[in-house]
Specification:
The protein has 10 helices and 2 strands. With 264 residues, the protein is mainly alpha-helical. The chain folds into 2 domains: 133 residues, Glycosyltransferase (Alpha/alpha barrel), CATH 1.50.10; 93 residues, no CATH class. The chain has a two-stranded antiparallel sheet. Helix 8 packs antiparallel against helix 9. The radius of gyration is 19 Å and the shape is globular.
């Protein structure tokens, strides 16, 4: 809902959100091991970690925990206490990242985990290992920027071909799907289009070493143009923020709106 309102944009959309109620709810989801439940009484995994980090930073929520939180102690931890360590424990022997500690690695969980770390702090500072040495989190950034590494992670041409050939629901309902056969839905439409956008653009992190997602982090985005282009320019979609999966201008706008608000 929060990301949908972010895309809609504007004060009237932002004011729909009850920030105090959201803070109380996230405090109730926060767990003593650092993670977050997906819902009250629900699973604890990196999806909850990512969603919580997104909501907290977009809405500029206070980090202090409600005393009613199951994670609250006399040491007064906050919403982000232990969250990076929880994510670090989700890396598996395979090198990937699982939804929770001691589970199987999965690409979607890896995105949630790494995006969560990027929100908590500059990606290359959250763990020393992100400078390139071995450790709990794979090296997906360096001081020279994301793009040289990012380009080799997957075959962009192959991704674009698959999405345009297999990801579209050609029935009257339209939309996108994860593979041929299933019907389209809003969830897969969002992430398939996000994947298409990432394959069509170069995105480089333009920020100082001290920048975080809540301060001055900005992405320099430019269209990827190759000698062999497997899609028409009419099929090039808008670029998105690689971490929040919404247009960067929308992400910056809602952050600016709530940064100007003090308290609830």
């Amino acid at each position: 809902m929060v990301l949908a309102l972010t895309i809609v944009g504007g004060e009237s959309a932002y004011e729909v959100i009850d920030r105090r109620a959201m803070w109380k709810w996230l405090s109730a989801l926060k767990q003593p091991d650092g993670g977050f439940q997906m819902s009250l009484g629900g699973e604890v995994d990196v999806r909850g970690a990512y969603c919580a980090a997104v909501i907290i930073t977009l809405l500029n929520l206070p980090l202090d925990l409600s005393p009613d939180s199951p994670a609250w102690t006399s040491d007064k931890p906050n919403l982000f206490t232990g969250l990076a360590d929880y994510v670090g424990r989700c890396q598996t022997f395979e090198g990937g990242i699982s939804g929770k500690p001691d589970a199987e690695a999965h690409g979607a969980y890896a995105f949630c985990a790494l995006a969560c770390l990027a929100i908590l702090d500059a990606p290359y500072r959250i763990f020393p290992s992100m400078q390139g040495s071995s450790g709990p989190v794979p090296d997906l950034n360096s001081n020279s920027g994301l793009e040289p590494i990012y380009q080799g992670l997957y075959d962009r041409e192959g991704v674009i071909r698959y999405i345009l050939s297999c990801g579209q629901d050609h029935s009257a309902r339209g939309g996108m799907r994860d593979k041929p056969g299933p019907s389209s839905d809003a969830y897969h439409t969002c992430y398939v289009l996000s994947g298409l956008s990432s394959a069509q653009y170069n995105a480089r992190l333009a920020a100082s070493d001290d920048a975080t997602m809540t301060t001055s982090t900005h992405w320099d985005v430019s269209p990827l143009v190759n000698d062999i282009q497997v899609f028409d320019e009419d099929d090039r979609i808008n670029p998105i923020d690689p971490v929040y999966a919404v247009p960067q201008s929308r992400r910056e706008d809602i952050m600016a709106f709530f940064t100007a608000k003090q308290g609830f």
